[in-house]
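TL;DR need structure tokens for one chain.
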Amino acid sequence: MATYLITGGAGFIGSNIVAELVRRGQRVRVLDNFATGKRENIAPFPSQVDLIEGDLRHPETVRQAVEGVEYVLHQGALPSVQRSIEDPLTTNEVNARGTLNLLIAARDAGVKRVVYASSSSIYGDSPTHMSWTDSAGLPKIETMKPAPKSPYAASKLAGEHYCQVFHQVYGLETVCLRYFNVFGPNQDPTSEYAAVIPRFITAMLRGERPVIYGDGLQSRDFTPVVNVVEANLLAVDAEGAAGEVFNVACGKRYNLLELVEALNRILDTSLTPIHAPPRPGDVRHSQADVSKAERMLGYRVEVAFGEGLERAVEWYESHL
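>> reply
TL;DR here they are.
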């Protein structure tokens, strides 16, 4: 039995990791300031989770959180491209400086390995010659040159660089996982910065037409959260993975019009989307090559997009 710290453990992805670790009988500690996380996400585990309520920006709190911990799954961050465009300073403070605080504390505490939640947003629309309708440069491979288009993407890339430097300079084992458009249970649909799938599902469950920013042909490698949970746990002890970066996704892409069609089929509705102007900072197309994760982590897609969408609809139906 090992002791795990999940930063942002009351958030969407973090709480799903917490649930799986509890199911596996591991010791679990959560650090969360509840800026975006929700207490109800970890409420089912009152006796199995050691909760530290605090902020990644406070070094002493972070030091307390890593004390006696063997593995850190660093999910804590201030998400959303749009939020970062409106408030780049806070995004940097939480995502970049907060990650640096965590790495220093993990190094000093003798943590065995830190798994860092990065983002596919760091790729941007690489290569830079791509047009708005072009899908060249896909799938995204870890060796591609990053081209972040938002402060959020830049902050996540900074966290990656810090992880790799701490491995190279201090010998702290770090693994970076680049998530691609994760969705599933516990994802908040009510925030003004909510991701597209929870927004679409909850709107369509109310009989409302979903809002698409742009023409709807922008595509994403939508990834059910169960795959991301498994990737994190594989990354904890995979040999040869320290210092590496891995894509975590399904390896396929769907545009937003196809997403609406799929939800109409599941919900037995015929709602058409409302189109609004495109938003700055949004990437046009995103799709992952996951062969490196398959080869080095033993990663496999456990739940594909269609099944994950059905599970998500079921969850939102029971929680609205």
